[in-house]
Amino acid sequence: MLYRGKPKMLVLIGIISVFNCISGQTLESKWKGNPPRYICSVPGLPGPPGHPGSNGAAGPHGRIGLPGRDGRDGRKGEKGEKGDPGLRGKAGPAGKIGGRGDRGPVGKRGPNGTGGEKGFVGPAGPPGEKGDKGNRGIPGKPGICKCGSLVPKSAFSVGITTSYPVELTPIKFNKVLFNEGEHYNPNTGKFICAYPGIYYFSYDITLANKHLAIGLVQNGQYRIKTFDANTGNHDVASGSTVMYLNPEDEVWLEIFFTDQNGLFSDPSWADSLFSGFLLYADTNYLDALSEDYA
Description:
Number of helices: 2
Structural class: alpha+beta
Strand content: 25-35%
Radius of gyration: 68 Å
Distance between the termini: 185 Å
CATH topology of the domain at 155-293: Jelly Rolls
Subcellular location: Secreted, Extracellular space, Extracellular matrix
CATH class of the domain at 155-293: Mainly Beta
Shape: flat
Largest sheet: 10 strands, antiparallel
Order of helices and strands: HEEEEEEEEEEH
CATH architecture of the domain at 155-293: Sandwich
Number of strands: 10
Organism: Lepisosteus oculatus
Helix content: 10-25%
């Protein structure tokens, strides 16, 4: 019983092995994307040739060959036509002056020429000796003296009739004592220069009840400042200076500090005065004035 069944078992095992082999090859071919090929099948015809592959990398350069020989010179061409003349070149530098030759023999004297024109007067000779004193001449007519009219005049002296003027404005000295040339204006309190030159200015101010801070002003600029403190009694503040003025320059007195305007005036016994005058005029101005009169 055992013996008889053994051949059948072997046959069954062989069929199962062949089936597993065929089915395994089929599945493997499907996974790889290739058509199934069975071991036990007959080989097919060869497939078509594949596409040519890409070019390979370039090989190394070969050695540089020896230089070739120079070619033979060509034949000499025919002579061309004569060209146009070129531009004239610059003259060369002058040569050195040659040596002086020997003097030739003296020729015969020629005929006399005509007289030339009269020449210019020559320079003056040295002064001669002093001559004798001449006779006295006839007296001339008397001249007209204009000396006084050539002297510029400018002077003033003024007082004030009110007390405690406004600060930081020209003080109007309205009491005119002297005003040569009318160069001081009592309505504005300003002296206006008419003649350029050197001027002298001074002031004597009586103060009472307040301190006094007063200054001399030229064209808006303080030239001198004085300050006097009130001690309960009347006092006098004074100042003076010399300055150069041009025409149209303005000069005046002014209180330069607020509430320090103790200027006092009482016509019965006290005056506050402002004075000035021309010391001498500018020499250039005097020269021009003399030419105008001449």
